[in-house]
Design brief:
CATH superfamily: Tctex-1
Strand content: 15-25%
Strand order of the largest sheet: 1-2
Distance between the termini: 40 Å
Pfam families: Tctex-1 (PF03645)
InterPro entries: Tctex-1-like, Tctex-1-like_sf
CATH topology: Ribosomal protein S3 C-terminal domain
CATH architecture: 2-Layer Sandwich
GO molecular function, one term: dynein intermediate chain binding
Number of helices: 3
Shape: elongated
Number of strands: 2
CATH class: Alpha Beta
Amino acid sequence: MEKPQKEKAFSTEDITAIIKEVVEGAIGDADYTHTKSPGWNNAIVEGCLKKLKDKNKSCKYVVTCVIMQKKGAGFYAGTSVYWDNENDGK
């Protein structure tokens, strides 16, 4: 008898689609603006976490966002995490 295959925690295609949707919604085709970077960064990490959490997978998530000018000069980074305190420990 064949063993049942374990369900993947998530698919790369689903996660890529979520990231593209959130980034496009937060930044669109705007040029890099240092003063807007913190807001964009927050919108991206929080938006990705919300959509990942809504998938209802029993996973912990860490989202890191780096926003950088194509010239290599401007740079902004941020990280956000999600886990269930009751089930994942402290």
